[in-house]
Write a sequence for this structure.
């Protein structure tokens, strides 16, 4: 059974020959549920409530558990590097990064995903989602990719310099990041997710040489560990930005669904990734979903489908802005409902 067939099996009550609609809604979901985003990120019950409501109200085929870059960071190193805001996600303050002193890496421990921290909070949210709607929607777990977690701990500018100045430290940091991701993925799968998403957005900021030397092998280790233990689970890779130069190395990964941002050349992606890999996304979150019309959204979804072919999921390139009009989001989903693969 292909990944798309497994996803379609979760679409109870829908024709199995329509496209799947899986827009990336987080801040939009919190706004739609009438809650500040800080509540969504800090309380797994609130996340589950918002995801359930937006999925039902907009007929979205999945519930996402991604929310912010600080879950693993806080459980590893505390919240000293994290800045909180009322109605947006927490951010990492590079001037207070947990690994300003690289020697501290040796003192860090792999956190227990069930240890009562923010990683555990996501698992509690998953359990609520599974109890409420499991088997009727795809439930997507989430882990930070190796470079994503590395830059969250070290600071983006610092880690980019480390590639040149201290590659040995980068190797150690990326290995640690992968060691955090693997048990966290296993714990979320045990809680009931059918899909694991891995976000490694910072990888789009490096070239193919550094990607293949440093990052892709660690992504491979994480994804291979998931597939070896849970071959039935769908793997999903989200790397924001322009990833065109990385496609050849990305194609080697055991990824079922590639989420591609709107700067990506979709024709090149399909060529390099091959005809059988599932492509999700590429609809612009800015020029189309945020500032376009429902008609332009529908047309852009059709363009992405036409290039991607049958192995396609209708999705935004990245997170849907909370300021996106509901009519535009409904137009995106309507394209999926009205079209066959």
């Amino acid at each position: 059974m292909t990944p798309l067939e497994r996803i379609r099996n979760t679409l109870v009550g829908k024709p199995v020959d329509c496209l799947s609609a899986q827009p990336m809604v987080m801040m939009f979901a919190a706004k739609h549920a009438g809650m500040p985003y800080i509540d969504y990120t800090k309380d797994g019950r609130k996340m589950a409530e918002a995801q359930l409501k937006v999925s039902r109200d907009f007929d979205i085929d999945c519930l996402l558990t991604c929310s912010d870059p600080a879950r693993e960071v806080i459980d590893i190193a505390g919240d000293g590097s994290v800045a909180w805001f009322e109605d947006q996600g927490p951010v990492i303050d590079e001037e207070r990064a947990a690994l300003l002193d690289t020697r501290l890496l040796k003192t860090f421990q792999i956190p227990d995903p069930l240890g009562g921290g923010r990683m555990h909070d996501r698992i509690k949210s998953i359990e609520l989602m599974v109890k409420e709607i499991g088997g009727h929607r795809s439930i997507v777990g989430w882990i930070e990719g190796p470079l994503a977690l590395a830059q969250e701990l070290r600071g983006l500018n610092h880690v980019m310099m480390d590639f040149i100045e201290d590659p040995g430290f980068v190797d150690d940091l990326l290995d640690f990041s992968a060691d955090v991701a693997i048990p966290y993925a296993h714990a979320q799968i045990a809680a009931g997710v059918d899909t694991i998403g891995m976000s490694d957005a910072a990888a789009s900021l490096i070239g193919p040489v550094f990607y293949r030397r440093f990052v892709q092998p660690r992504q491979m280790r994480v994804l291979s560990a998931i597939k070896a233990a849970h071959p039935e689970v769908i793997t999903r890779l989200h790397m924001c930005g322009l990833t065109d130069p990385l496609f050849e190395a990305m194609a080697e990964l055991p990824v079922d669904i590639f989420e591609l941002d709107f700067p990506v050349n979709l024709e090149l992606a399909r060529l390099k990734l091959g005809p059988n890999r599932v492509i999700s996304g590429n609809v612009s979150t800015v020029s189309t979903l945020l500032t376009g019309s429902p008609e332009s959204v529908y047309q852009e979804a059709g363009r992405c489908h036409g290039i991607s072919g049958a192995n396609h999921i209708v999705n935004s390139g990245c997170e849907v802005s909370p300021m996106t009009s509901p009519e535009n989001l409904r137009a995106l989903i309507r394209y999926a409902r009205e079209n066959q693969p």
Q: What stands out?
A: The chain has a mean pLDDT of 95. The chain has 14 helices and ten strands. The longest helix spans residues 167-191. Residues 7 and 138 are 6 Å apart (CA to CA).
